[in-house]
Amino acid sequence: MSTQRKAGASSTPKTAKPAHPPRVSPRDSLLDPIFSAIRKLAGKAHQDDASAFASAFYRRMSEDEMPLHSADGWAALANDLLDFARKRKPGTAILRIFHPMLKTHGWESSHTVLQIVNDDMPFLVDSVSMALAEQGIGVHVLGHPLVQISRDRSGKLTAVGEGASESVMHLEIDRQTPEGIARIEEILRGVLASVRNIVDDWRAMRDKMQQVAADLATRRMPVPDAGRREAQEFLRWAANDHFTFFGYREYQVRKRGGEDVLVAVDGSGLGLLGGEDTGKTRSLKSLAAHYMQHSGSMDALILTKTNARSAVHRPGYMDYIGVLSFDDKGRPVSEQ
């Protein structure tokens, strides 16, 4: 249960709904009491779905984790999480942070519990774990099974064990106050939205980079041919899964208050730079190319680091790749 899966998209083959809980490992004798308990807890109408859900949820549970709860407790935990997952519209994440109680949930924990159900996509575990670490919050239990779930158009669960793979995250973290819970929920909702924006737009961002690389062959640029070719090779290399694309935006040079500034082009943003917020204008003097131009040399690309740290996938300052366009006098007129 505590093993994280490798980040990456997974296939969603259609399979027949199992008539019985699948036998997944020699440890089934340890899990059988949980399956028996959850079938009784869920009742006849839901016991097949509950058994299939518990099988997926506890597939990676280690023997060391078994004593954390009784079989009834593990069954109640899985059944409670399944109830939480019963309504979710595709394209959205549902999240809750709470303190389970025996009377209400059928199980309890000395920690605060964080649960997220989402479409399967890369970077979820890394990004959620990173956000908690940034807040100094310890993680004591981490489960992240992929569960095949079928839903109707409204998002209501219709079957477990068939349909698309969904990410189900269960974390037990340091005990939190109500104020701490509200803060964590706000942070994580922002992180999950960022992950979705990046994943949804990654292909469009990669295509943009490949398009720019091709355009450099004929783009007016005050750089030697060798530098132009080197820039093309770098962009194609980066687009070949050597970079994780977080955002893309186009800028035009405009006069504001007698100064040349870069203004974002409406509707050009993708990933983290999508949406209606086009950001503040930047002085053209902020471009490294400005200083190169006045020193008598020019590069086809601007390669530097941002002043913002990544909230997705891994910590650290993000890389910045800028490509300029020029007028017939060699002055920058736009940036991608």
What would you note in describing this structure?
- This protein has 336 residues and is an alpha+beta fold.
- Helices cover 34% and strands 24% of the residues.
- It contains 8 helices and 14 strands.
- The protein has helices at 28-42, 47-57, 71-84, 102-105, 124-134, 178-215, 225-239, 288-294, and strands at 94-98, 112-119, 139-143, 146-151, 157-160, 164-173, 247-248, 251-256, 259-264, 270-271, 282-283, 301-309, 317-326, 332-335.
- The strands form 3 sheets. Strands 1, 2, 3, 4, 5 and 6 form a 6-stranded antiparallel sheet that branches.
- Strand 8 (251-256) and strand 9 form a beta hairpin.
- It is elongated, with a radius of gyration of 25 Å.
Average pLDDT for all residues? 87
Low-confidence stretches: 2-19
Secondary-structure-based class equals alpha+beta
How many beta-strand elements? 14
Number of helices: 8
The proportion of strand residues reads 15-25%
Task: List the main descriptive attributes of the protein structure presented here.
336 residues, alpha+beta, 8 helices, 14 strands
